[in-house]
Please model this.
Amino acid sequence: MADLQIHIEYKTLPNKIILLGMTVLFPVWAILGPAALGLFIGHTIIHPSAFPLSFTVYVCLAVFALLLICIGLTAFAEDKYIHISKSGIAFPLLFSRKLRAGRNRNWAEITNAELIDYGESNKSNLLALGFNSGEIIPLKIACLKKQDIEQLLLALELWGTNCKRSPQLLTYQQDLQNSYHNGSGKGYTQMWEEELGRRFTNTVFIPLEPEHQLQNGRLRIIRQLAFGGLSAIYLAQLNGLDLVVLKEAVVPNQADEDKRKQAEEHLIREAKLLAKIDHPNIAHVLDHFMEDGRHYLVLQYINGQDLRQFVKQHGPVSQLTAVNWAITICGILIFLHNQNPPIIHRDLTPDNLIYTNQGEVVLIDFGAANQFLGAATGTIIGKQAYIPAEQLRGNTVMQSDIYALGCTISYFLTGQDPLPLAPSHPGTVIVGLNKDLDALISKCTSFEPEDRYQSASEVQEALKQLIPHLQTETANAIEISMI
Model:
């Protein structure tokens, strides 16, 4: 599949006027002009003494110059697209004077982007892009479609790793995503999901087969539970008796040697840290070891169904159930974030949460290994819809888990993965969703970490305050259904 390429139309008033004029006058300069010139030259050849030679030359040169000017103006007016790809951005001819070093620029050359706001009533608001050469390109907001602006800003987010964006621009981008997500336009979102998928595709390895034995027969693989490019999860038997979950992680040999060693050290250090965790809603890490160049965590086996499969089988859950589950998950995050040093999960999704046979929600997997494997291979591993922007930039913070939590709650309610790199609004999918719950999820999934809840305890408290309202709404709904 080819890399994602976007062509954004940039329609300025001068371009429109020039293109309209050249189109209206096309019969004159493209047909009648050359035809008249041909007749004039033919007449001059037949009657050489009819006009002075100098006059004939001047007329021919003037018509040729006029024709070239019209062709140039038409090409100038028709070159109205900003071309965006993984390799860089190309601007229309309109900006040639400002871009003395060339119209094509790679993403590393863009150093800053800011929104110059002249007020809502003024159509002269600008998106200014600065380059390391000192040049600045002012793009008029009014000359771009809303969805094209959003795609340009997403491209800056995804590829412009050296670009520093102003707070005003970040706020504008978030408002734009909210308004566009609440509308009907979603056609371009799939392209970005595919691009994220290509960017964060894992390096393939071969998982272990059933009956494979590790540690001289101490562990026997029963079956695969799940596997991706750099890790796998198995159901295994320990010492011929107890069922356990075995998580396997592989740092590929082709990875940079220093990064590979660093990733291996991090995996061992994290395994020791996780082994000390004792929480009723977190699967215990029983052991960790390395064999045949692969790293393994031995985890407590939890009998139940992961919440993705649960929702797929039973459908989206009620608001009250989703909130109760979320309160439990918040308790897990509070515990992890309060460790010394704090443990950031980095991969909180419905896939990593089990609904046990006893009706409890238990966290069964940690995303820490994914971060270190990603560091070794130059990729980020995880489910794209649950990864916040700062994690894509390699700057994971505790609020990154808050983002994933909001996305997870949205999945509980809708049965759909949320849009990547955008605040989640399940209220646009579910009729009658509690507005405070929708607002809570939206705040959890805000684009920038500072706009989210700053701790899991804040989210938990906000969720608990929703319980009485949701209980009342549920009771009223039951009464209405019985009438």
Notes: Residues 306 and 354 are 4 Å apart (CA to CA). Residues 1-109+145-161 form one domain. Confidence is low (pLDDT under 50) at residues 183-187, 199-203, 368-382, 479-483.
